[in-house]
Design brief:
- Helix content is about 60%, strand content about 0%.
- It is mainly α.
- The chain is globular, with a radius of gyration of 22 Å.
- The chain starts with a helix and ends in a 10-residue tail after the last helix.
- About 10% of the residues have low confidence.
Length: about 375
C-alpha cells in the first residue's frame, strides 16, 4: 500500500510541475537557485517578496497615507475625511472601506481587546458618520470570515448577525450608498439567505450601482456550487452580467472569475488551460482590460486573476504584461485566498519571468 501512495504522490508532482519543465523548444528549463541561468524578477525592477503590499490590489496613495496616519496617530479623522471625499457609487469607496476594516481586523488579531482603538473612538465620537459605520460593519464581516473559528461555528454565525445589524444601521445613515448592501452580500453567503431574500438584497445593490464590479464579484460567491448555487447558476449570473455590460466595463471579465470559483481542486489534464472554456473566458477578460479606463480601481483585480491563468496557459508575454501593471500589490484574488499571498504571487511572477526569458524575452524587450 505504501508504494501505491508513493507512486500516486510522484504522479501528482509531475502533473503540477510538468507544464513548467522544458519538454520541447520554448518551454522552461528548471535550474538551481543562484544559477547564472536562473531568471531573476529583480532584473525587471519588480518588488522583493517581503515588500509586496498584501492590503490592497493596486496603488492608492491617498488610502495608504490615511492608513499610515491612522496607524501612527491612533486617530480616526484621516480615514473619515478620505471616505467623505470618495464618491459613494464608485468602486474605490468600497475598496477603501474594505481596507480600513481589514486594518482594524489585523490590529485586533495582533492586540486582542486593545487594537483598533481609533475605530472604537470613531464610532463613539461620530456615531452619525456613515463612513465609520461602514468600516465597523466591514470589520465585523472580516472578523467572522477570518478569525471566528470557521464557517458553521457559533462565533461565525453570531458575528455575522451582528455585522448584518451594523450594515443596516450604516444604510440608514446614507440611503443612496451601495456599500452597506455590498458588505451584506458576504453576510448573506455566510448566513445562507434563501434565494428570494438574496435577490431582494441584490436588487438594492443594483438600484444604486448597477455596474459595480466589486458587488458582482461578491454576489458571484453566493451563486457558486460551494455555497448556495451551482456551476450553472454561477456561469449564468456571470455571463448575463457580461452580456449587458456597456463598452469599457470590467463586467466583461466576470466569466473568468466564475471559472476560477469553479476550478476543481486538482487539475489532472495538461490541456485544461488550453480548453475552449478557459480560452474564451481569458479572451473576454483581456478585452475588458484593454477597453476599460486605465484608472478603474477594479482593473488590478482582473489583471491579478489573468496572471494566474496566463501562466498556466504558458502565454508568457501576456502574463508579464499583467505583472508589469500590478507588481507591488497582492491584495486580490487569487493570492488573497492563499495562506501567504505574497509568496503565492511571487511564485507565479517567477514562473512568468522564467517562461518569458525561455522564449527570448528580457528586461530590454518588456514594455515600460
Amino acid at each position: 500500500m505504501e508504494i501505491l501512495w508513493f507512486l500516486f504522490a510522484v504522479l501528482m508532482i509531475l502533473f503540477i510541475v510538468g507544464p513548467f519543465v522544458r519538454r520541447r523548444r520554448g518551454g522552461i528549463r528548471l535550474v538551481a537557485p543562484g544559477s547564472p541561468d536562473a531568471a531573476d524578477p529583480a532584473n525587471y525592477g519588480f518588488d522583493r517578496q517581503e515588500d509586496l503590499d498584501i492590503r490592497i490590489p493596486g496603488p492608492d496613495q491617498d488610502l495608504l497615507d490615511a492608513l499610515d496616519n491612522v496607524r501612527r496617530t491612533g486617530q480616526w479623522q484621516a480615514a473619515s475625511q478620505l471616505l467623505a471625499g470618495t464618491p459613494r457609487e464608485g468602486e474605490r469607496r468600497w475598496q477603501r472601506v474594505q481596507a480600513f476594516g481589514g486594518a482594524a481586523a489585523l490590529e485586533l488579531v495582533a492586540q486582542p481587546g486593545v487594537g483598533a482603538q481609533w475605530l472604537k473612538a470613531w464610532r463613539l465620537e461620530a456615531d452619525k458618520d456613515a463612513g465609520g459605520a461602514q468600516v465597523h460593519a466591514e470589520l465585523l464581516v472580516q472578523q467572522a470570515w477570518r478569525h471566528s473559528g470557521g464557517v458553521g461555528s457559533d462565533d461565525h454565525r453570531i458575528i455575522l448577525e451582528e455585522a448584518r445589524d451594523a450594515c443596516r444601521r450604516a444604510a440608514l445613515l446614507a440611503p443612496g450608498d451601495p456599500v452597506p448592501y455590498i458588505t451584506e452580500l458576504a453576510i448573506a453567503r455566510g448566513l445562507a439567505y434563501p434565494e428570494a431574500e438574496f435577490d431582494e438584497l441584490w436588487a438594492k445593490v443594483i438600484d444604486r450601482a448597477p455596474e459595480h464590479m466589486g458587488a458582482h464579484l461578491s454576489a458571484l460567491h453566493y451563486w457558486c456550487a460551494k455555497w448556495h448555487g451551482s456551476r450553472e447558476k454561477a456561469d449564468a449570473f456571470a455571463h448575463a452580467a457580461a452580456a449587458r455590460a456597456p463598452h469599457g466595463s470590467l463586467l466583461a471579465a466576470l466569466p473568468l472569475f466564475a471559472l476560477y470559483e469553479n476550478l476543481p481542486d486538482v487539475i489532472l489534464s495538461s490541456g485544461f488551460y488550453r480548453g475552449e472554456a478557459v480560452t474564451r473566458a481569458v479572451e473576454g477578460a483581456l478585452y475588458a482590460v484593454h477597453t476599460a479606463r486605465q484608472d478603474d480601481p477594479m482593473l488590478a483585480h482582473v489583471r491579478h486573476l489573468l496572471l494566474l491563468f496566463l501562466v498556466n496557459m504558458e502565454r508568457w508575454a501576456e502574463a508579464m504584461e499583467q505583472v508589469r501593471h500590478v507588481d507591488g500589490y497582492v491584495g486580490a484574488l487569487p493570492w488573497s485566498a492563499a495562506e501567504d499571498p505574497a509568496a503565492q504571487y511571487a511564485l507565479y511572477r517567477a514562473l512568468a519571468v522564467a517562461g518569458y526569458e525561455a522564449n527570448g524575452g528580457s528586461p530590454a524587450t518588456l514594455p515600460h
